């Protein structure tokens, strides 16, 4: 994944690591979409959103890491219930990710709508907008992982 070479999770708090990982993955999703690598973009978007939700629940609700559900869908349900938020289909993204992993070819994807849905939810979670000090596309090892 794109964060492997660009951050050291052991040097960060759980919250900061989740936020940084999410933001690096968001940048990578855009790169992957631009290169037509939809299977990888979907999986990377899922990871970005999972980490954004983890960061949000840990910082906004002051949950301790040991009280955070291990299943991303359960974390989404916490946010959805507490915020009365129903504008993002996390279950649909999860299904799309699982289906695309098993696919033999790139799935049909409306790139603009996928990006808009994802970024709207990430803005709601206050993970976007952001500026990164590093760009995944600039690191040759990360480019290899992304296949670009």
Task: Describe the secondary-structure layout.
Layout: H1 14-34, H2 38-60, H3 72-83, H4 90-101, H5 111-124, H6 140-146
* The CATH C-level class name: Mainly Alpha
**Domains, number:** 1
Proportion of residues in extended strands: under 5%
The profile of the biggest β sheet is: none
User: Which class of secondary structure composition applies to the elements?
Assistant: mainly alpha
Radius of gyration: 15 Å
Helix content: 55-70%
Low-confidence stretches: none
Describe what this molecule looks like in 3D.
The chain has a single domain, classed as Up-down Bundle (Four Helix Bundle (Hemerythrin (Met), subunit A)), CATH 1.20.120. The chain is globular and about 40 Å long. The protein is mostly helical and 148 residues long.
Descriptive terms for the model:
Four Helix Bundle (Hemerythrin (Met), subunit A), 148 residues, mainly alpha, 6 helices
How would you briefly describe this protein structure?
This protein has 148 residues and is mostly helical. Helices cover 60% and strands 0% of the residues.
């Amino acid at each position: 994944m794109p964060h492997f070479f660009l951050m050291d999770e052991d040097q960060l708090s759980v919250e900061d690591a989740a936020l940084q990982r999410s933001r690096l993955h968001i940048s990578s999703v855009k790169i992957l979409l631009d290169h037509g690598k939809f299977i990888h973009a979907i999986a990377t978007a899922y990871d970005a959103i999972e980490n954004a939700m983890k960061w949000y629940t840990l910082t906004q609700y002051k949950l301790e890491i040991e009280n955070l559900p291990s299943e991303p869908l359960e974390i989404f349900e916490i946010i959805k219930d507490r915020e009365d938020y129903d504008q993002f289909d996390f279950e649909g993204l999860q299904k799309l990710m699982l289906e695309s992993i098993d696919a033999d070819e790139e799935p049909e994807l409306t790139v603009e709508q996928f990006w808009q849905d994802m970024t709207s939810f990430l803005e709601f979670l206050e993970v976007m907008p952001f500026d990164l000090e590093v760009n995944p596309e600039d690191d040759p090892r990360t480019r290899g992982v992304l296949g670009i």
